Amino acid sequence: MNIRVALAGNPNSGKTTLFNTLTGSNQFVGNWPGVTVERKTGKLRKHDDVEIVDLPGIYSLSPYTLEEVVARKFLIDEKPEVILNIIDGTNIERNLYLTTQLLELGIPLVLAINMADIVEKNGDIIKLEDLEKELNCPIVEISALKGSGIDEVTNKAIKLANLNQKPNKIFSQDINNILKDFENYLTDIPENEKYWYSIKLFERDEEVLKKLNLNQNQIDEIEEKLSALEDEYDDDTESIITDQRYDFIGKVLNNTYKKQNKGELTLSDKIDRVVTNRWLALPIFALVMFCVYFISVTTVGSWCTDFVNDGVFGDGFFFFGTGREAYEIALEDYDLAQTGIEAFDVAAQDQGLDPASAKTLVTSADLYDEEGNVEEIIPVTYQDYIDYLKVEEPDPSNYGLFIPGVPVLLQNWLESVHCAQWLQSLILDGIVAGVGAVLGFVPQIFVLFFLLAFLESCGYMARVAFVMDRIFRKFGLSGKSFIPMLIGTGCGVPGIMASRTIENERDRRMTIITTTFIPCSAKLPIIALIAGALLGGAWWVAPSAYLIGAFAIVTSGIILKKTKMFAGNPAPFVMELPAYHWPTLSTLFHSMWERGWSFIKKAGTIILLATILIWFLSNFGFENGHFGLVDMDNSILAGIGSLFSFIFIPLGWGTWQATVATITGLIAKENVVGTFGVLFGGFDEVSENGWQIWSNMQAFFTPISAFSFLIFNLLCAPCFAAIGAIRREMNSAKWTWFAIIYQCVFAYIISFIIYQIGSWFFGTGNVIGTIVALILLGLFVYLLFRSESREKPIENKIDLEIG
Amino acid sequence: MKTLKEARVGETVKVKKLHGKGAIKRRIMDMGITKGVDIYIRKVAPLGDPIEVTVRNYELSLRKDDADLIEIE
Ligand SMILES: Nc1nc2c(ncn2[C@@H]2O[C@H](COP(=O)(O)OP(=O)(O)OP(=O)(O)O)[C@@H](O)[C@H]2O)c(=O)[nH]1
Ligand SMILES: [Mg+2]
After folding, report:
1. How many whole angstroms separate alpha carbon A373 and alpha carbon A367?
2. Which residues contact A386 (CB under 8 A, 6 or more apart)?
3. Which of B40, B56, B69 to mutate: most A Cβ within 10 Å?
C-alpha cells in the first residue's frame, strides 16, 4: 500500500533539510502543474512504498497566494495519507497558526518541532505531552540538521497514515454552533472533511463556494447568519477565525511553553543592527553585490567558463597550465613571422619580383594590437624573410602536458575514419558546439547558484528585498530583482536563473522579461564594432548602451505593470526577516546542484536544437544547381536574410548581411561581429571589435542606421541560451513566447524611433517615417503614464490556469 | 485614528483594529498581526520604506502603505 507523506510548514522551517535527510538522492524536482512553484517528491529511504512530497513553504491555507493555493489544492484534491507538519521550534507561535489549519483538513497529522538543537541551547522549554493533548496530535522534537528524532517521526507518520484523526475544534462556542449547523449543507462531503468545509463556508471562501454549488436559498441562509455574527463582532468572518486561531495558540502556549532570556540581544539582532543600518545598509549591499559579481562573473566563474569554452570545447589546454607561457611566447614569434612573410610577399608582388630571390628588397610590416591600432612597424629584409620562413608553427604538446579539446580529438578521429565532410561539420560545428554552448555556462551557473544559496540561507537575501524594495516596486519589480540584473551585465543566462530567488510569480516574470535588456558581456563586441566602424569610436556609445538598457527595464516595468497580464495589486509586501545563521555546506551544494542540473536539462535541449538548426541553415544551400555544403553567402540563411531584410528597412539597415548577422546573434551575441567579418570582408576570423572590416562596413551603414542596428541587437530576443533559461524559469511556452515577442517588438519600436527621428540630424529624414515614429512615441508615452488598469480587484484569488 | 505607519522606531504599540479587506488584510493577519497583539517597531529601511517590526517573537517587514491599515491604540 502506497503512502504519501505531505511535508508542510512555514518557509524556513527546515522542510527541505528534512526532505533531503529523508529521501537522500532519491528525489525528483519539477514544478506544480502550470505554475513556477517548485514541486519536489522523493521516496523515503528504505521504504519504497512511502513517497514524500515537499509542499511549498506557506504561512496559511488562504486562497490568496499562489503557493498557498497550490498546497491547498494538493491537500484537498489529492488527499495525501498523512501530513508531516514541520515547525520551527524557535518561532512556535506563528508556526502553529498553520498547524491549526492543517489539523482541520481531516487528514492525520504528525507535528515535528524542528531545530531542537537550538531550542535546547536557548534553554526554552516545551511541555510536549501537554501540547499533544491540546492540539490532539502526536508531536516529536527533531533536528533536521543534526538528524535527531527523524526515525521516530517517520515511524509515527507511517503508523498514523489512513487512521482517523479527529479535527481539533478550537473556536468559541457560538462559532462552533454555526459550523455544526453549516455541516447540514454538506451532504455530499465525506464525514471527516465536513468540518473543514464548514469553516470555509464560514469564511466565505470563494473557491469552496464555487465547488459546493449551493442553491440561492442556502446561500441566503448562510449569509444571514454570517452577517448577524459580523455585526456582533464588528469584524468580517475571515478575520474572526484568524483572531480566534491566534487566541487559541496564545492560550495553549501560556501553559506549555517557556522562552528563556527575553529581552537580551541575540547575535542575529546585533548583525542586523549593522547590516540594515540606516547609513551602512547601502554600502554593505553594494559590497556584497560586488563580491557576488566579482566571484561569479569576473573571476572564478569566467575562469571556469573560459576553461570549458577554450580548453575542453576549444583547441585544448595545458595540464595545470604548465608550459603555457613558453607556448604563448612561441606562438607570438610565429605570428610575427607570418606577418613579416605576408608583408614581404605583397611587396615583392607589387614590384613584380619573386620573393624567393628578391635579395635586395626591404619593406616593413605593421603590427596591430587587438583594437586595430598600429602598435609597431618593423623592417623586413630578405634575410628576415628567410628566417621567418624557418619559424615553424609551435606544437603545444612540445611545451608541456597538453590535453587537446574535445573538438580537436573528435576531428582527428572523424578524419581518420574518413567521415563525410557534411557529417563532420554537423558533429563538430553543430552538435559539439551546441553541447559546448550549454556546458560552457554550467560552471558559472554553479558558482552563482552557490553564492545565491549562501545569501538565501544565511538570511541576507530577505534583507536585500527589504533594502531595495522602495526603488524596484515602482517598476513592478521586486527588491530582489537587482541581483538578476547585476549578474545579467555579465551574462544573461545566470542572470535569468538568479530570478529564482524571487518568490512572487508576477515579480519574477517581470524580472525575467527585462533582465536581458542590460547589455551582457557578449554584446560588448557589437558595441565596439559599431562604435569603431561608424561612430568614430565615440566615447558615449558604450555608456549609452547601458543607459538604454536601464531605460528599457524601467519603462517596460511601468508599461507591463499596467497591462492586464500583470494587473491587480502587487502582492502585499509583508515579509518575514528570518534570523541570520551560518548555513551548512551540504545545504549549499544541494541547492546549487539541483538548480544547475535543472538548467542543463531544461535549457540545454533548446540551446542544442537551436544551435544545430542555425548550423544547418548557415552551412547548407544551393550552389551550381545542387544542394549541399556552401559558404555562408550562398546558404539558406542568406536566403532567409534577403527574404526578411525588408522588415528592417524602416530601421535603416535592411540588408541581408545585417539580417543574417542578427539571426546568428541568436546563437551568441558576439557572433554578430564574426558574421560581419565573413560577409563584409571574407575573413574567417576577425578580432573582437572587428577592426579589419570597419571600412567595408561604411558602405552599408550610416552612423544613425548603425546605432539603430546596435540598439536593436542589444534589446531584441537574447541568445538561445538565455531563451532556454527563460523557458526554464517561466515554465510555460506561452510566457516564453510572450517574453521574446515583447523584447523584439520593444527593440523594433525603439530602434525605429531612434532611426527615423535621428535621421533628421543627418539631413536624410523621411516625412512619413517620422510621422509614424512620432505616433509610436506618443503611444509609448501614453502607455507609460496612463493610470493603472483596475480590471482585477485586490480580492481576486489566484488564477491557476495561466500557463 | 492612529496607525502603525505613524508609530515611531523603538515604540511598542498594541493593535486595535485592522482595516482593508481581502488578500491584504488576510495576509497581515496570517502573519500574526491580530487584534490586541503587541508590535515593537524595530527600524525603517534606509530608503524610508518598508519598516521592520517584531511581532509574536519574530521579525516582519511591511510597507508603510500596508502599515496604514493597522490601527493602533
Ligand atoms: N540549527 C538547525 N538549523 C536547521 C535545522 N533544520 C534546518 N535548519 C536550517 O534552517 C534553514 C532553513 O531550512 P530549509 O530546509 O531550507 O527550510 P525550508 O522549510 O525548506 O524553507 P523554504 O524552502 O524557504 O520553505 C537552513 O539554513 C537549515 O540549515 C535544525 O534542525 N537545526
Ligand atoms: Mg525549501
Report:
1. 8
2. none
3. B56
Domain shared by A74 and A180, yes or no:
yes
Indicate if A63 and A177 belong to the same structural domain. yes
Based on the fold, state whether residues A228 and A141 are members of the same structural domain: yes
The CATH superfamily assigned to B2-72 is Ferrous iron transport protein A (FeoA) (2.30.30.90)
Report whether A201 contacts A240 (CB < 8 A).
no
Most A CBs within 10 Å, among B27, B42, B65, to test the A interface: B27
Verify whether the Cβ–Cβ distance B46 to A62 is below 8 Å.
no
Alpha-carbon distance of A201 to A180, in angstroms, equals: 11
ipTM of the prediction? 0.96
Q: Are B61 and A278 within 8 A, CB to CB?
A: no
User: Do A769 and A704 share a domain, yes or no?
Assistant: yes
Contact assessment for residue A676 and residue A657, using Cβ atoms and an 8 Å cutoff: yes
Asked, for residue A273, whether it belongs to a domain, the answer is: no
Those residues of chain A whose CB sits closer than 8 Å to some CB in chain B are: 59-60, 62, 64-65, 91, 93-94, 97, 235-236, 238-239, 242-243, 246-247, 259, 272, 276-279, 281-282, 462, 466-467, 469-471, 473, 569, 571-579, 793-795
Query: Is pTM beyond 0.95 here?
Result: no
Q: Using DSSP, state whether B72 is helix, strand or coil.
A: strand
Per domain, the residue ranges of chain B are 2-72
**Is the residue at A303 inside a domain?**
no
A93-116 residue pLDDT tens: 999 999 999 999 999 999 999 999
Task: Find the B17 Cα to ligand 2 centroid distance in Å.
Answer: 34
Cis, bond preceding A525 (omega within 30 deg of 0): no
How many domains does chain A divide into? 3
The C-alpha cell that represents A409 in the structure block: 580529438
Q: Which residues of B touch A482 (CB under 8 A)?
A: none
Where is the domain boundary, A385, A404, A423? Answer: A404
Domain span including residue A351: 321-404
Q: Encode pLDDT of A332-377 as tens digits.
A: 888 888 888 888 888 888 888 888 888 888 888 888 877 777 888 8
Chain A: residue nearest B34 by CA? A243
pLDDT beyond 90 at A659: yes
The answer to whether the CB atoms of B29 and A281 lie below 8 A apart is: no
Farthest-apart Cα atoms in chain B, separation: 30
